[in-house]
């Protein structure tokens, strides 16, 4: 492959809300990226994008954008059921791919996507933007310090009240459901914690891709999708994790990590606002300040830098595949 030049020229497949409100502005803020092209099947959306972002090129079809030789990388914010198809098509056109979470509907799709990207020598990353926040860095720092002792329990929740009856999140044919939409975050967070435990026990700097040895679930399904989903996972280390997500109750984003020596409370676990973590060691309770972060901007910049330097991005495909495998098991038990 020829050397990649700065900046990375991005194409976006679909003018979804997360694209127009978060990722496109992040691309435009990034020093190593350029928003080059947008594809949408709706002319009104293309007109809005031209007016708002002064995009160089607009396309009425996703295939048209992928044929643009000036596009280096694509961002895919399409409905979950379309991630696999368009990731593979983008890879076959030689485009690097940042794909929204969940990257696929199942681990089999995920493996196909990874294989297609490897065969075409392009980068693929799942867009878990919370991994780029100061909040996540502080959580990892506390874990790695050992101050909590042996980690015995993790609880992580991401839920909100969905009031739009036409939302694609409620359509099973498009990959709707609470576990896919927001539950994938607690799954990823718990996997990150389990990996840190395994790393500390093994002394290896690598991420082991730790899998639970058993899972149990409870969920409520309405019209073919889960509106509330809870799970218990038990890991080889003895860690037990409680994961909760849903569309049918008040917003709640919170996690805690409990060890033999202390507890770490993590409000707004997956957000990038300023705030505090609360660390309790014995009877001593103190707050750890968290700075506001640009999670989308840092995600875009890291991915673009990975493409330019031909290195792995911060979030590797081992974690992505592990997430898909765990979600497969949860959905199989909860069906």
Structure, described:
There is one protein chain. This protein is of the alpha/beta class. The protein contains 9 helices and 14 strands. It has helices at 17-29, 43-53, 62-66, 83-92, 107-119, 134-145, 178-202, 295-309, 317-334; strands spanning 8-13, 33-39, 57-59, 73-76, 96-100, 124-127, 151-161, 214-222, 225-234, 240-246, 248-259, 262-267, 275-281, 284-290. The protein has an 8-stranded mixed beta sheet with strand order 8-9-10-7-11-12-13-14, with helices on one face. Strands 3-2-1-4-5-6 form a 6-stranded parallel beta sheet, sandwiched between helices. α1 packs across α8 and α7 (178-202) packs across α9. The longest helix is centred in the middle third of the chain and has 25 residues, at 178-202. The protein is globular. The N and C termini lie far apart (45 Å). The mean pLDDT is 95.
């Amino acid at each position: 492959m020829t050397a990649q030049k700065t900046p990375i020229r991005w194409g976006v497949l679909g003018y979804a809300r997360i694209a127009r409100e978060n990722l496109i502005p992040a691309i435009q803020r990034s020093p190593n990226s350029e928003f080059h092209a947008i594809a949408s099947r709706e002319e009104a959306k293309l007109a809005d994008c031209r007016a708002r972002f002064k995009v160089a090129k607009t396309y009425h079809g996703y295939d048209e954008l992928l044929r643009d030789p000036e596009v280096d990388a694509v961002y895919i914010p399409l409905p979950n059921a379309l991630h696999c198809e368009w990731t593979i098509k983008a890879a076959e056109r030689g485009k690097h791919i940042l794909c929204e979470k969940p990257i696929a509907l199942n681990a089999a799709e995920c493996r196909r996507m990874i294989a297609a990207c490897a065969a075409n020598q392009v980068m693929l990353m799942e867009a878990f933007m919370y991994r780029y926040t100061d909040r996540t860095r502080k959580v990892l720092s506390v874990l790695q310090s050992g101050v909590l002792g042996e980690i015995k329990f993790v609880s992580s929740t991401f839920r909100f009240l969905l009031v739009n009856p036409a939302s694609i999140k409620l359509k099973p044919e498009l990959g709707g459901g609470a576990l896919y939409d927001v539950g994938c975050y607690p799954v990823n967070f718990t996997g990150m914690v389990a990996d840190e435990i395994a790393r500390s026990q093994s002394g290896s700097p690598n991420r082991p891709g730790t899998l639970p040895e058993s899972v149990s679930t409870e969920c409520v399904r309405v019209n073919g999708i889960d509106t509330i989903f809870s799970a218990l996972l038990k890991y080889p280390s003895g860690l037990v994790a409680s994961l909760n997500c849903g569309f049918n109750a008040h917003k709640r984003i919170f996690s805690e990590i409990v060890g033999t020596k202390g507890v770490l409370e993590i409000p707004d676990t997956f957000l990038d606002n300023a705030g505090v973590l609360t660390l309790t060691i014995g009877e001593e309770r103190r707050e750890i300040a968290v700075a506001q972060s640009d999670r989308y901007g840092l995600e875009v910049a890291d991915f673009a830098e990975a493409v330019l330097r031909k290195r792995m991005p911060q979030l590797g495909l081992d974690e992505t595949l592990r997430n898909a495998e765990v979600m497969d098991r949860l959905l199989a038990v909860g069906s």
